[in-house]
Amino acid sequence: MDNTDIISKTITFVKGQLENAEGGHDWFHIERVYKNALLIAKEEVCNLQVVQLSALLHDIADSKFHNGDETIGPKIARQFLESEKVPDAIINHVVLIIENISFKGGNFDKKFHSAELDVVQDADRLDAIGAIGIARAFNYGGFKNRALYDPEIAPNTNMTIDEYKNSQAPTLNHFYEKLLLLKDKMNTSTGKKIAKERHRFMENFLAQFYAEWEGEK
Ligand code: ADP
Ligand code: NI
């Protein structure tokens, strides 16, 4: 099977897997990350098939919705790729990327490194910032029944992953705990450039938000 066939089969598979996914991790998130990844990959030396498969398969089973089980997504991805007879070296690389891409809470460490991981991680991070990032944060906060903002509750950038997951902090805190930190965590030059613009957009949003909160505008 040539790569175009494998990619289109993967797209069909992922769409099926994400049929009932919540708004922040639905097929449209995957589609945006896939497009970001292709754009970033153009300027990098990397294996395009690995980038494509990892972007498509990186969120097929979010641990937040599987009792914190981080191993389900990589397992399902491996089974699918094996059933499609994708070469082992490619499968192993894609699975490593899926295992290492996430920046749960304030956890920015990664144990595995590759040019392809750098590309897909940047693509995923770009979807967490800017206008879409703002929309996703409030969507997630709503899903968790969190307040929009509370001037009495300060952001906390030192939470453990579990504390972070269970935190009832208002959604605006998430900007300081994660979203505004992403610009300086980007791996690739294209990723950095786009992140800079999206970061500025979030800063403008926050300034406007506080002004409106105070009844100034
Ligand atoms: P990923 O799955 O890409 O590793 P997450 O699952 O942590 O990232 O986040 C998915 C989306 O939900 C992102 O847009 C993120 O900003 C948002 N999100 C995650 N945690 C929070 C939170 N505590 N408050 C608001 N939004 C959140
Ligand atoms: Ni993602």
TrEMBL record:
The keyword Cell cycle does not apply. Residues 26-129 form the HD domain. SUPFAM superfamilies: HD-domain/PDEase-like (SSF109604). Keywords: Hydrolase. GO terms for molecular function: hydrolase activity. PANTHER family: HD_PDEASE DOMAIN-CONTAINING PROTEIN, SUPERFAMILY HYDROLASE, PUTATIVE (AFU_ORTHOLOGUE AFUA_1G03035)-RELATED. This is Phosphohydrolase.
